[in-house]
Each structure stands twice: as C-alpha cells, then as structure tokens.
Design goal:
Chains A, B, C: Residues 6-388 form the Glycoside hydrolase family 42 N-terminal domain. Chains A, B, C: It comes from Halogranum rubrum. Chains A, B, C: GO terms for molecular function: beta-galactosidase activity; metal ion binding. The structure is a homotrimer of 673-residue chains. By secondary structure, chain A is α/β, with parallel strands linked by helices. Chain A is built from 19 helices and 27 strands. Among the domains of chain A are: 399-599, Rossmann fold, CATH 3.40.50; 611-672, Immunoglobulin-like (Sandwich), CATH 2.60.40. The structure holds magnesium ion (3 copies) and zinc ion (3 copies). One zinc ion binds at residues 90, 107, 109, 151, 153, 155-156 of chain C.
Chain lengths: 673, 673, 673
C-alpha cells in the first residue's frame, strides 16, 4: 500500500530536479509517473528525437529509489505532425474538425495516426527497454476525455462499414437484426451505412448502439496497439491505462482485457459538482461523496478482479469543476485511505507542482507553483507513512453489482424520461449496499457469479438467451438475484424481444412487464411494500406475476394504483426479486437490506451519509467524509492501526472531521456511538 | 362516425396478417391506412419494384370488409436513392445537410426529388387505380415535422429568387415594399436575395416573412404534385394529408385547397407536455387538455368547412414527449368521442401494433409487440360500437375565430417579449369560448363571415385595406367583432402602416394605439373593467379612443396607469371591441362572455377545467378529461346515447372519470350538478 | 451642454425634410448625425455615386442652423459589394461565414474590405471637405456589436501570425512566454499558430489572451484607417466613434487614442435587462440603473480625460431587450441631465423618427412613425431648454477606478466560478463610490495617478513589474490604494508569476495569497471586519500577511474559517488595502467608506438605491431614478437651476419621480430629507 506522484520535469528548470526528487523521497513516495503529453519535447521536429532530458530525469529520480512509470505521449501529437497530416483530426457530428489547441483531437481510426503512434511508442519503448528504474507504462491518457470516444470523420465512416461487415457478414442480416424496414431504412450495402450524422429526427436505435460499440472498439484496438508494442520490447513491464470516473462512452471491461493494471483518476470535489444529479453540500464540496468515488474504485477493481491504482489523485483545489473550493483539512489523506480500503495498491497524486503556464494553472499540485509545500504535500506524506505498514490482500466482496456499458448506451439514446440516467439508477442500489458497509464488486454480467452470495442487477436492459441462462444457472445454484427496472427490454441488437419484457428472463422472474410509464418530477410516485409506504421516482412498471409473489403494489394516483410494482420469485434453489420502479433512497435501503438478509451477507445498520466503512483483508477502514467528528464502538481490545483509541480498554475509536481510522475487526463489529 | 387504424404489414411475418385482419374487423374497424414509409420495400433498388406484398395485404384486409387508405411513401426515400442523388437533401440554416437516418430529409424544391416523386407516385397509383378496396390516399406524412418546412439549400436559394420575381416583378418594387434602405439592405437583383443564413444580428423582417411564405408555398406545390398525379389515375379517390397539432410553419389553409379530406394526428398526452406553456397536471398527463386538442379539431374542420378525420389517434403511451405516462382508463375511447363531437367522421388509431425495431419502439399500438391486445384495443372497440349508430351532420358553429398563419410567422420573428406566443394568445380566447360550450370555427380572415353571430380575431397583425373592408362589411351587416392586441400593426409586407395602428382598421375600431409595451412575468399587470379588477399578462397597449368608448383602464403601476386598455365602438349596425392586452383567463372569460351575450350566442355557464360540452347536429357530447366522476342535469326525458341515466326520469346523466356521455338536447340544457 | 439627434432622411420622402428640420430646431436641437448605414444609397452600384440627396439633406438642416455629424457608412457594405468580394465576410469559430442580411458581417482584417473602405471614406470625405455645416465624423458604428470583434476567417489567421511575429520576434520566445510545453503545444513557426478554433478541451490561456488582443488591435487599426483618411481631408473635423455600454471585447482606451471625441450609445432600460446579473425592478424597467449607466459615462470620459458625448440616447421604448416597457414620464429628460452631470457635453437621441421598415420597427424615435411628436420629443425639448444655460467645465474626480480590458479578457476565459464576472465585480466597487456621491474616473492602470486622493483597483489581474512600480510610486507619494481579489495572479502573458500572488505587488501589499477558492451561490460566505459580520460572494482568498495588518478574518465554515480575508498595509507615505473576497454591497459600502475617509475624500452618506448625486464644476445634479418623489435639504439660499425650491429660504428642493434637480453647492451639502 503505497503512494506516488505525477511529475513533469520538462516544465521546470533542470537545476530543481534533485530537490524535487529529495522532497518526493522524504514524503515517502514510491512511484513517479513521467512523460505524459511529452511528444513535442521528445520529438521537436520529425525524426529529430531528444531523449536526454528524460534519461536524466529518470536517473535523478532513480537515484532516490523512486520507481518510474512512463506514458506513451499520444494524447497530444505535436503541431508539426498535425500540420503535416491533418487527416488525423477527429470530426464532430456535423463535420466540424476537432482542431489542435488542447488535447485528444486525433482519430482512433486514422491509419495515419496509427502509423505515427507505432513510430513514437516503439522508439520510446526501445530507449527504456533496459532501464532498471522503469517499472511499467500508462498508455496515452484518459481515453475519451472531452467527449472524444465518438468521432464522425471519413476514416471512421469507412471503419464503421468494415466493422459492420465483420459483425453481420451480409447486409441482409444487418437489415433483419436492426429492423430497417421501419421508416424505409434498409441499407443496400455495408458501404452505405454512415455514422449517425445530423438528420431531422432521432437516429435508428440499432444503428446508434452499434455505432457506440464500434467507437468503443476503436479505442480498444488503439490501446492494444500500444500494449503490443510495449510488451514486445519488455514483457516484465506492466501496461496500464488511467480511466476516468463516472464515464459512459468507453467500456472499461473491454479495454482492461489488454491491461496488466487498471488505474483511474479520482477527483472527488470535482465529480460531486458535475457528474451527479444532486447539488453538493458544503461537506461534499470539501471532500466529495464517498459512494460516488468508491463506485469507481469498485468498478475498476472489478474489471480484472485485481488490485487497482489511483493514477491521479486530487491534490487540493482543481480547475475544471464549476467551482473550486479548498478541500477539508486532511481530505487528501482521507482519499488515499478510502481508495486503499476499496482495493487500491497505490495512489499517485496529480501532480507534483502547480504549473505556471497552460490550461491547468488553476489546478493545485502537492507543491505550489513557487515550489513550496502545499496542503496536499503534508496530507500525502501522512498517508504514505500510515499506509507503509499496511500490506493487505485483495478485497473479497460478497456482493456483485452487474453493469454492462452497452446497456448504458442503449438507455442513454432512449431515456424515455429526461431524468432517467442509467448510472444514477445504478448508484441508487450501490449506495444502499455501501450504506450497510458491504463490499461490492461491479462486474460484467457474464463474469462468473458462483462466489457471490447476492447479485444485484439494476438494469440488464439488453438481454440474450445466453445471459439469461447464465443468471438462471446462478439462481439454480442457490443464488439470490435482485433485478431492477427496464431489465430485459431489448435484445442485443436493441430491438424489442419477441415476447414481453423481461424477454428471455421471464421464466426465471416468474412475471412479465404489463406496462411501463414515466413521469415528471412534479408527480408523486409511491408504493406500499410490506405494509409501509415508500416513494419512488421517474419510472413505473406494472408487473404481471405468473409464479412470483407480489411484494409491493403501486399507490401512485390514477390508473397506476394497485398494480403490482415489485415481485419475488422463489426460483430453483434461490430467489429472484424484480423491482419495477426506480426506488428513492429509503425504499432502496429496505429492498437491499431484505436482500442482504435473505442472502446472509454480513452488514452494518444503515450508516449516516458521508460516513462509510469497508473491510479489506481483516482490516476495517472507517472513512469520515463529513465535518463532524465521530466516535465508534469496537470490540474490546481491537487493534487500531490508524486513528486514536479513546479509552484504555480499546473499545472506542475517534475519527476526526474528514478523518480516518483503520481497525482490525469485522465490519459488523463497528458501530457509531 | 367510424374507427380505423394505421397498419404496417411489412413489419410482421406474412402468416400473421389474416389474424390481424380478423382482429381489426372484430373491433369494428372500418378503415386501414397502409404503405406509409414503404418506399424501400416497394422499390428495393432502382427500377426494381416489389408490389406483391402490398397487393396481398390489401386483399387480406379487403376480404374482411376493411377499406384501405394508401400513402405516397415520399417522407422516406430509400438509401440507394439518397446516395445516387445526394442533392435532394435539405440544408440547415448554417449549411449542414440533413442526412439520411430518420425521415423528412428531402428538399421540397429539389428538381431531382420532384422527378423521383413523380416516378414512385405514378407507379403506385397506376398499380392500385382499379383496386376496389382502396378508397383514398394520404400524401406523404406530416409535412414539416421535425422543423423541415424551411430549408436553406442551393435549390431553395434559387427557387426563392424565382418566387420573389414572380411576386414583385421588379427588384425596385421589392426594395420599396420591404424598405431595404434600412441598414443598406437594397438588393441589386432577385438573384442576389438569399435565404436568411447566419448573420450577426436579426434578419430583415420583410425578408423573413417572405421566406416563410416561400417555404410554405414550396410544400403546397409539392403536395399538389401528389394530388394531381393521383387524380389523374382515379378521380374517385379522396386525397388527404395528415397535419400535425399546434403546428406553426405550414399553412393548413393553403395546403387544404388541394385536398378532398383534411386529417390530422392527435396525441393529447404528448401535446400537453411540449406544445403548451403551462406544466401539465397529472390529469392532463393521463388524458391531455381538451381545449388544446379541440382547437386543432376546429382548425382543421375550418380549413375546408367540412368533416375531417383524425388520421392518427394516440393509442396508449407514446415515445416522443419528455415523459410517457399511461393514459387514464378509457382515455383512448374519450378521444374518439371528443373528435367526433368536434366534427370528425373517422378516427384512425396509430398504430395497429407496437413495433419491435426502429425509432418508435416506445410507442404503443392497439396491440402489444407480442401481438396481444393492449389497452387501446379495448377502448377502440368500445368507441367503434358506440359511434356506429351515431350518424350526425356537419358541425354548425355560431362563432368564428380568425387565424392567419402569416400573422403567426410575423409575430414569431419579432415577439418583442420572450413569452409572446401567437398561438398561446389565440388559445386564451379559444378557451374562453370552449369553457362556455360554444362551437368555434377557426377560419382564415378572408373566409365569408356572414353566418357567424360573433367573430373573434385575437391578432390580425398584418392588415391590408382589403381585409379591413371585409371586416367592416361584416360589422356593417350587424356583426359583432372582438379584436385583440397587436392587430393592424403591420402591412402585408411586414412594414409599419403609414398611419398609426391598427392602420387600415382604425376607422372601424374608432381608436388608435398610442403606445405599446411588454413586461417580464415578474411585473403585476392589471386593469379595471366594468368596476372589477382583472389581471393581464406580457403585453399592454395604451389606446387612444376617437369614436369608441373606454370600457377598461390600466391599473398597472407607473406611466401605464389610467391609460385606456379596452374600448368598444358601436359601429354601423354591429359592435367592435378592441382589447389592448393579453388577458389572463378570468378576464378572457368576462370579455368573451359579454361578447357572446351581445351577439346572442347560446352558451353554458363557465364549465370547470377539463370538463367540456360540444353540440353536433342536435347531440351534445359531454367529455370528461378529469379523474373525477361528474353528474349532469339534463331536461327530463333527454335521450342518452352514450353514458348512463341515473334516474328513471332521465334527468341526470353520470359521466365517469375520463368518460363521455352523448345526449340529445341543446348545449345550454346541460348543467353540472 | 446641448442636445442632438440621429436622423435618416433617406428613409422618408423628400418633401418632409423641411418640417423635420423645423421641428428639430424648435426642440432646441443643435447636432444632427447623418449617413450611418447609407452606403447602398450613396453608391447603389460600383462606382456610381449618388450624393445629391445627402447634399440636400445637409443643406436643409444647415438652413435651420443645425450642425451635422457624418458617419463613415462601413458597418453595412451593400449587397453588390458582398457578392463581388465574398472574402470580406467574417467567419464564426467553427468556420460558418457571417452572411449579409443584417450588419457588421465584414472582417476588420480583410485586405479587400480595407481597400473598399478607403474608397468610400475618401470619396465621402472629399465631397464634404469644405461643407460649412459638417463639424465632425463618426467612424463606422458600434465596432464589435453582435459579437463581431473576434473573427476566425483565413485573413484573420494570417494576420494573427503576423501580429505574433511582430510581438515576439522569434517563435522560441513565444513558446517560452506562453509556456507551450504544457500539453505538447510548442509551435514550430508563427505560421503554425491558428486562431482558437473548436478543439476538444479549453484552449491555452496565453493563446486566447493574445488572440483577444490581436482581434482588438485589428479594430483599432481599422478605425485608424478611417481617422487618417478624414484628417487628411479636413483636420478641423473632430473624429469620433460611438462605443457601446458594458462592452467587453473592444478596448475603448486603445481605440480612443485615435479619436478626438469619445461617444457612446446609452439605452438604460435595455442594459438593465441583459447586461446585469440581477433581475430588474419595475422602476429599473422604467428608467434603468443609474450606476450601470454612469459607469459607462465615467469609463468613456476617462479614456481621453475629456468631455464625451452620448451619441445615441434612448428616446422611448426600444426593440432589442427581452421586454420593452415604456420609460417613466420624464425619463428621457433625466438621462440627458444624468449624462451631463457625468461629463457629457452633448446628448444625441437615437433617432428622429420610428422607422417603417427593417429590423428596428419596434424602436421608438422622438417622433412616431406617422411623423407626430412622441413622448421623447417633449422630454428632449425640455432637456434642451434646461441645459442651454448651463455651461460647466470638465468633471474633476477625486477617485480613480483602475480598469484594463486585458484583465477582463483573461478572467473571462478562466472565470473559475460560473458567476465570476469581471465587470460585475468592478461594478460592486463603483456602486459603493457612487452611493456616496463621489465622482470616479475609470482609467487605465498606467494613467498618471498623482491627482487622485484614492485609487481603487478591483482586479489588476495581469501584473508586470512596470505596473507594480507605477502603483508603488503612487503610494510612496502618499496615495491610498484599495486592491481587490485576483489581483496580481498572472504576468502579462497570462502565466502565473514566478512568486506567489500578488506577484510583483507582494512587497507593496505586505502579504501574499496563500490559497484561493470559489463557491456556488448556495454556500454562505462571510467574514468579520472591525467587529461586524458581513457577507461576501463567489470568491475567497486566504491571505498571508507579512508586514500588513489583518483587518478581516473569514467566518465561512470549514477550513476557510479564521483565515485572514482583508489586510491593510501602511506602506511608504500612503496605505494599501487588499480585499481577498468579492464583497456583497454592505461590505463594499463599509470598505469603500473607510477608504474615502482615510483618503479625505468629500462624500455623502450612503444614498438610497436609485437616487444619485454628482458634482460637476460647482453644480450638483440630483437624479432620481425611482418612482418616488424626494425632498432634499440644501444650504439656505442655494441657487437652484433645475427643479423647484419648496420654501422661501431656498433650503429644500423637490425632485419628482424620475426627475432631476441642479443646485449650485457641494455634493456633501445635499441630504435626503
Ligand atoms: Mg460508411
Ligand atoms: Mg437566391
Ligand atoms: Mg496563422
Ligand atoms: Zn474518426
Ligand atoms: Zn432546399
Ligand atoms: Zn476575419
């Protein structure tokens, strides 16, 4: 469990590098990421390479015992390259090129850019193939950032046609699978299929979904190109990529197949302002929303079922959210512990030092732009010291939350209600699990499920026979399955299934969906569950139980009233619950609490918002994302690794505002006083 | 009075067609619309026609006694045609083409597309010229949907220049009529006049208005092309088009001149969410706003002064509004009755069966996508049974509401207040008339007015001498004329008239407009009328009476206070009232109530919102768009065709939530208990 | 002190010109502006000039003793010219041309358009070189209106490269000054630098700032072209330009260097609706916000330290704001007095008569479109009569408010909080000065400051050593300097300075900025100043005093609490106060009040909103922008030039709603009763 930092020596005078390295070592930093966005300084003109500065920087860091992670610098091709080969630029949906001037303007499908990528990556890899300080690589940077997964250029148009030909073999098959008779949309050939450019009404949902898949696959291919080049040179290097948080358009499951190490970039006070529906509280502006953050930890940990890294950890105030408050005292330390509790093995702060020029001047570093220590430096040093002794094994989660990006893309293109957001809906269930201290693996639906006591699938929207069989096998083996709204609405081509929803899952569920409806926020939506009244939001289904029992009925006014809303089916040796609404938090807590109890999963009572516990390898991290101190009761004599025991009997632990405690016990041993 | 359905046999396996036809016949359906959007299956490649499937579908339906309405399939040209002749595409205002991928992307002025239209329509018409089951045609589908009346392509630029040359003869005349000296906008030739492309400030209002007229005329011409081709083959066929609701950019009066039958597409729970200013109530989400819907019935009935059809009637939940609640129980039946009361002779539900693929998966049909009966099927069957016996004559309305699309276009391009909406303003007066159970013809201002007891003209914005004379003649013959704000502000070229507003009407009105002003919603706007205080909104005029009497003075604070707001002129043998504000509902009810009384029009007391009565040929339809049951008092012994008499004396009638009653009496015989 | 009008004789029949001229003379009008937007009538086809109408119009006006100001008609090139040389059109950021159809669509950098400009301006100037009635010129009209300062066409791209080469000499220097190593943005040549076209993320802040400077300089150059041509012909003419209010993108300080007379266009009830953060009150809808208006008076007066003109004064209702209420009775007179009090020597109403055709039909004139007198005519006549006797010297302001457009542009491209608006922030301090009746010169930071008792600099964001020395000299000479938030954050290349903020100013301030943060409006932000609690908004800095004293500490919750918020440094022979927040009005009043007291500036108590006093040359104008009458106490016997003395002792003066009084005394002699 360790700490690192992202460093740009090329931004600073050569004479400062030694003191930077010394200061890093003193903070307990182990890893240093280098060379991101460095193409223009590595190759200032075509074929003229300048590696000396990088050689030297690695040497200076290595001399302090620091380990180096290098980046392929492809996120920012130099201007000379763009001017020479302008065909590498992406195009917006209306054909406007995405020009030079920031980053990520290159097209993943550009043959020219793949050629250039091969050239620079090979050259770099060869240069450092034997370097003892270089331990691994990050490919490019944040694939897809700034809405760049999807491109509408000529190269993409041609590649899309090829991708479709590969998938469907004949154009007749495509026409049949998509259902192109609707609105006379039959295609005479694969060449005739274009990316979804501006057209008067909505595009065909099957075309949209395949375009989103194709765009995703283009990134996967492009990443694989990097991975292959690097591994060819030195197969002991790890190959990593740094993903983003709450990010829709790129399928991390698919990219991860080509990675040794999955990492992501965590900016809690930014995310809470622009990737979440609710307005942030002041505490959230100071430290973020722990469930929003850990949902990404658990997602990326789940991609390869392995410890992950935070490749970029927020170091202080950041520039890109709407507002930029200062994090609470200790928040930068808190985030490192929180990540570790959820399975991170290393947390690298972005970045060493605030930059004087360019787009990120308003983004803090561990050091101020004048070189002095900033608030994050002290937090990072403390976290490094505390984590140094804690070597814990991989997280072992009892619950799986099923998530497929393709479902997200399908729902996004047909939300059917302005506020139906696939990810917010998933988060409703995730929060209810985390509120009870349960560790959750967020995994692809086709992952092996046998080790999970409970499987929660908020929206398996696109359902195939194979996927239905996989879930059915799980329940047959005694598993407990909790399904949410809009599950099984479509087949994998984004058409309606032959039969009623949930299509191939109907048998297992023991019920079908009779009707669905959506509402504006102004309408009161409610149901009665187990004799108690609860609210739900946005989405309502009328269920038609066959073998299943009705466990909740709608109380929403009018024709909705008295229709079955939630059903439960004691199927095979397990159970299936189907929730035909988007539950508000209280209802989610109840449904999930009942499911955990049925499945026999150890959990806590519902914890207060902002206070979260997570167990990893016999250690429980108590992370306090609020400005109020808390005291916890723990079993007498509980060892306390981080935090302070209040009494001599070691049966309480104090946690500061924005503080953390690490105690050696089970998660259900911990109680808020 | 009958029922029909829109059917797409090409979406479903051949073997299901017979059972579909049987189920239609069992429901009492008489008309089936076919072949809309079918070009790609009729002509899968150039010159290769496949009519067999359509022949067979007509035969299967005809065998059940069903009558077929065919569509010209031009709303969706096939991809092979678009790729062969890409010049047919429309262009957005900034030049971006409107691509293939949905519908309505072709330009009405494209010579290439007119050639292709001629080819497919002739071919189809000839194929079915003698078919005994085919009774008529729909041209294309919803001309102008998805903002496509106005195109900015090269073909349109050339056609606009020709249209202007035809209208103005010399460019000097155009420059003079428009007033192009302003901002140095004089044109050297007709060729030099371009469509209104992006420019730093607003475009010239006279150019805008003529461009909107030109774009409208392009659709009129294009529709005439269809009508002529069809009539050439079989002049016993009716030619119809299906218009949209609350639709601004296409002049239904002008298109209707080339039609035998006017039809429109009615989606009450959609319209109430996106074509109206106020947020919908839950009842409105379940059944729509009856006045919003019937205003379109009355508009389309008024175009040719003849019974109309609803060519597409909402069958259940729909996909395109922001949210998609389930209609109330019975709502689909209610809508058919409501349309009939307002003059519909047939109501066709859209569509037979929910589609598995394509853009409208979230749009219900009378049957579910698995083929089983959906909620709408039962409602439609009941409506068919109830309407079967009711053969009523054309609606005879005592009141005319004058409406000219050109006024709408002129106001839209210079609203002068963010919330001044021509159609909402018209609706204010329409609602006040409907709240008293009065039937209203919405007609063009130059229609013959002699049969109307009262003429209401909320905004005759563009005023010519001819139009003023026409109104003056009406009043001279004893007519009663109620005029609203912004009347007579411009001449027909969208210039200010020589004299003050209301220009050519000033004599008749006996007053002029001294000043006008507009306000944000935050300012309280009020006046005193007949000793009572009332609110108005958005728009205020200071009137300067000459011969007229002041009947209301402003009480709005500041310089507006005490200025005349409404005047009345006892002119010739009739009366003219001019309302210099946009009244709120209560004021509109009072003004309209007084006008009805002056004109001696039979009416009810003001009915509650959502409950409406309408008389057609001695039958009164009571339509309940609310979730509360109501009981009506009627004269003893009133025959009740639909609905239930509560007492033996037949002097009350019960109406269910979202229910309907049809009783044989006069509209003022009915009273809410 | 005089009155004028803008006149378009070419819009009206020749036979009306004499009566127009007579009516002008009767109103006491002295100046008439002519020929704006007249190119198409002056040169209806290339090389065919028609000057006769203008000769005649000048003659008719001159015969009534009116003085003529002519305009170069370049804001609206004729259509024949645009069609002949379409390369003169501007381009939007995405490349879309800005077409003919309104105005201001030409590019300032187009060589073709500069050639055409030379041609028409020379020809016009020569025609009227000896005309005795023509006293001066307005260049073009409202440079930059409709967002046209910044253009993205090919000509601009080339000119930008040249401008950079001129500024930086070598591309290495540019790369170093900007800091282009960030995100691999190094440029290989000046030719390679493009305007900031669409790119996935933000553009580089140094490129943006230089592009904004370049675009501004392009307008400055283009204006100079006009000025030179005119002066060559007749160097007794004044050369003026009419600027706009609250206008960001054009540096009036820079343009003014080439002008003899600075003028601007004042539309109080429009500005209050769309160039201010708060929603307007009804009084503001009737008369505007006096501080918003006078801030522009003081800005334009300050550019050349000379009396200015209002070249266009709102005459009644106007067409372009969201809503168009009628101004209060007398408001048009009030505005003329208010302008005079702030240093105007002439106020010209826009325009003589409402226009029948074109984009400004809904814009009043002094005469209605039918030629009769409108409300503004009476107000203008009264103002002319009242001002006729009042010949007052230039305004002598004791306080300077420092403002640099480059700071505005830098902050706008990195606001760092959605509601951080440079101009609104400046206005906070300006309001506090005006609320105490203090005259303020708004001047460029490098203006000579020695005559000012107090200098207020709300945000000197870009700080150079030279600028710091200039301020330091001022304080060393005993000056009092009040600095606001975000001062000294950047160097003049928009990079962070080497040292901490406020960079080169740190020594003078005696403190540095430890941290900054921004917040959404939902968070309560507060501080304790001199024992009292106050609110602030949006922006917070934590100050780190060195020699300075802490005079306010944050009380905002969390980590912000107890950090120093405002400091004061008794430096050299003067004082420096640094305010590390954006104060709310009450805090601004207190800080500014204390600063005025320290500096010994004469002022009033805080006046009510909407009531303002201003002293010019021994005369105090009391201007009442509210609908409530007020009575003022003045020293016994005070001469009252305008307004009414209530008592025989001449010790009170009544001011009507929207009224004005002019009394001969000092500003602190006046008190609201
Ligand atoms: Mg293609
Ligand atoms: Mg043309
Ligand atoms: Mg260039
Ligand atoms: Zn591409
Ligand atoms: Zn067109
Ligand atoms: Zn340009």
């Amino acid at each position: 469990m360790t700490i690192g930092v992202c460093y740009f020596p090329e931004h600073w005078p050569r004479e400062q590098w030694e003191s930077d390295a010394t200061n890093m070592a003193e903070a307990g930093i182990e890893y240093v990421r280098l060379a991101e966005f460095s193409w223009a300084v590595l190759e200032p003109e075509r074929g003229h390479f300048e590696f000396d500065w990088l050689d030297e920087a690695i040497e200076v860091l290595g001399a302090q015992g620091l380990k180096v992670v290098l980046c392929t610098p492809t996120a920012t091709p130099p201007k000379w390259l763009v001017d020479e080969r302008p065909e590498i630029l992406q195009a917006d949906i209306d054909g406007t090129p995405r020009h030079f001037g920031s980053r990520r303007f290159y097209c993943f499908n550009s043959p020219a850019y793949r050629e250039e990528t091969d050239r620079i990556v090979s050259r770099l890899a060869e240069r450092y193939g034997d370097n003892p300080h270089v331990v691994g690589w990050q490919t490019d940077n944040e694939f897809g950032c700034h809405r760049t997964v999807r491109c509408y250029c000529e190269d993409c148009s041609a590649a899309f046609s090829d991708w479709l030909a590969e998938k469907y073999d004949t154009i007749e098959t495509l026409n049949e699978r998509w259902g192109t008779t609707f609105w006379s949309q039959r295609y005479p050939s694969f060449e005739a299929v274009d990316p979804p450019q501006p057209t008067p009404a909505d595009h065909h949902p099957s075309l949209l979904l395949d375009y989103y898949r194709f765009a995703n696959d283009s990134v996967v291919d492009y990443n694989r190109l990097h991975a292959n080049l690097l591994r060819e040179v030195n197969d002991e290097w790890f190959v990593a990529h740094n993903f983003m948080g709450d990010f829709e358009t790129l399928d991390a499951h698919a990219v991860a197949d080509d990675l040794d190490l999955v990492t992501w970039d965590s900016y809690p006070t930014g995310f809470v302002q622009d990737r979440r529906e609710d307005d942030p509280t002041l505490d959230e502006l100071r430290a973020g929303d722990p469930d929003q953050v850990s949902m990404n930890h658990d997602l990326y940990r789940g991609t390869n079922d392995a410890p992950f890294w935070v490749m970029e950890q927020q170091p202080g105030d950041v520039n890109w959210p709407p507002t930029c408050p200062q994090p609470g005292d200790g928040a930068m330390r808190l985030w490192a512990h929180h990540a570790t509790a959820h399975g991170a093995d290393a947390v690298l702060y972005f970045r060493w030092r605030r930059c004087r020029g360019g787009q990120e001047q308003y983004h803090a570093g561990l050091r101020k732009h004048d070189g002095s220590a900033d608030r994050g430096y002290h937090d990072a040093s403390q976290a490094a010291a505390e984590l140094d002794g804690l070597d814990v094994a991989h997280v072992d989660a009892p619950v799986a939350l099923l998530h497929d990006y393709h479902d997200w893309w399908a729902i996004s293109s047909q939300p059917h209600a302005p506020d139906f957001d696939y990810w917010e809906h998933l988060r409703t269930y995730y929060r209810a699990l985390r509120a009870r201290g349960v560790q959750v693996d967020i995994v692809h639906p086709e992952t092996s499920l046998e080790d999970y006591a409970l499987v929660v699938a908020p929206t398996l929207h696109l359902m195939s026979e194979e996927r239905a069989d996989h879930l059915s096998d799980y329940v047959s083996d005694g598993g407990h399955l909790l399904l949410g709204a809009r599950t099984g609405y479509k087949d994998s081509y984004n058409r309606l299934p032959d039969a009623r929803q949930p299509g191939a899952l109907s048998n297992l569920v023991g019920a079908t969906v009779d009707q669905h409806e959506s509402f504006p926020a102004s309408v009161d939506l409610s149901l009665m569950y187990d004799g108690d009244a609860y609210d739900y939001r946005t989405w309502s289904e009328w269920l038609n139980p066959d073998e299943a029992d009705v466990v909740a009925e709608h109380t929403t006014a009018g024709v909705t009233e008295a229709k079955p809303a939630i059903i439960r089916n004691e199927a095979r040796r397990g159970t299936v619950t189907y929730v035909g609404v988007w539950p508000e938090a209280e209802l989610a807590n109840t449904i999930v609490g009942d499911a955990l109890q049925t499945a026999g999963v150890t959990s806590t009572d519902v914890l207060p918002d902002g206070l979260r516990v997570a167990e990893r390898d016999g250690h429980v991290w108590v992370t306090n994302f609020t400005s109020d101190a808390v005291t916890l009761d723990v079993p007498q004599g509980t060892p306390c690794h981080v935090g302070e025991s209040k009494t001599e009997r070691n049966d309480t632990v104090d946690v500061d505002p924005f503080g953390v405690a690490v105690v050696e016990c089970r998660v259900d041993d911990v109680a808020v006083e």
